Amino acid sequence: MIVVPGGFGDSDSYATLFKNNEKRVKEFIASGGRYLGICMGAYWAGSHYLNVLDSVDAVQYLKRPGTDTRRPHAKAIDVTWQGKKDKMFWYDGCALVGDNTKFETVATYANGDAMAIVQNRIGLIGCHPEADKFWYDSYSWMRRHWTGGHHSVLQEFADQLMRS
Fold it and tell me: Which pLDDT belongs to residue 16?
């Protein structure tokens, strides 16, 4: 499994990280390997970067109709993960939009857009279930939202992806 997590970075890192590896990543997925992309890693699976998705794209959630945010800064955003309402660390994450018959939706945002999906051997998450306490502590307004993290849902998601 190739895991491309979110974190403190930007889209400019794509050229550095994938300059010599883009073709290998695509070949790995095509030959049965798994790709797990979180936030920026999810964007990078989309049409402007790796372009490995079928009839779905990763787009900025804050620009979507009915979004509950219009600013890209860190926040605990409302999500529904496999039917359970929660708040998850978000920092300008993507929504996964397109033909929803071509992927399994694991989690949604408040407006109903897909936040986490599995499509064949590709798993994408717009928020940050990998976020540790220091992420929340880095922003004064986020400290109160730390509830122990979402590492268990991330592990379940990775397990589901490996079974797909």
Answer: 80
Q: What is the pLDDT of residue 6?
A: 77
What pLDDT score does 10 carry? 64
The pTM of this model reads 0.96
- d(CA 113, CA 88) in angstroms, rounded, equals 15
Nearest to 122 by CA among 10, 42, 39, 8: 42
Supply 57's token pair. Answer: 């794209």
Q: Residue 12 has what pLDDT? A: 73
* Integer CA distances (angstroms), 125 to 2, 6, 143, in order: 14, 9, 22
Stretches in the chain below the pLDDT threshold 70? 7-11
CATH code for the part of the protein at 2-163: 3.40.50.880
**Tokens, residue 158:** 């990775």
Domain boundaries, the chain: 2-163
> Which amino acid is it at 61?
Y
**Which contacts qualify for 148-155: CB closer than 8 Å, 24 or more apart?**
150/86, 150/88, 150/89, 153/81, 153/129, 154/125, 154/129, 154/130
Yes or no: say if 90 and 74 are a contact pair by the CB < 8 Å rule: yes
